[in-house]
């Protein structure tokens, strides 16, 4: 071989390979290009970005956005269905903030469905918000987020609140005794 030329723009989705042999002969081959991102097709990338931005601005969550795009026939860069993880990654890459279930307002102590926000649960038990995050991680309280980045909705009964307050008192007493 004397020279090899790759052309990714001659045929969309294809790589055209032209080989110049030392004998002076040439041959041309085409192979399917594996697309790893939308960065190669700017027009399609912009359409996806605009649609995600519109749906996000309308208050749709990542899982809902993925479903809508899939229903509309839009496919990921690899030609597959969107998942909420794809949407989350694209939003972060493009700097699109997560739509909030309560807009820009502060989280209320309790949500309309009766669940607690982190701040509300902390106030009800008498601990800091960080302690509630620790309790969530330890499984001492249970909550859900509609999607990553959304406020927590924590289910707490009055019995659970009493139980956690008693646990807190035992912990505080044991620390005083150890001093």
Describe, in plain words, how this protein is organized in 3D.
The chain has 179 residues and is α+β, with helices and mostly antiparallel strands. It has six helices and five strands; from the N terminus they run βββαααααββα. Helix 2 crosses helix 3 and helix 4 (118-125) crosses helix 5.
The best one-word shape is: elongated
Estimated helix fraction: 40-55%
How would you sum up the major sheet? 3 strands, antiparallel
Q: Count the helices. How many?
A: 6
**Percentage of β-strand residues:** 5-15%
The low-pLDDT segments are none
Mean pLDDT equals 84
Tally of structural domains: 3
| CATH architecture group name of the largest domain | Orthogonal Bundle
SSE blueprint and pairings:
Elements: E1 3-7, E2 14-20, E3 26-32, H1 42-57, H2 62-71, H3 84-94, H4 118-125, H5 129-138, E4 142-144, E5 153-155, H6 158-178
Antiparallel strand pairs: 1-2, 2-3, 4-5
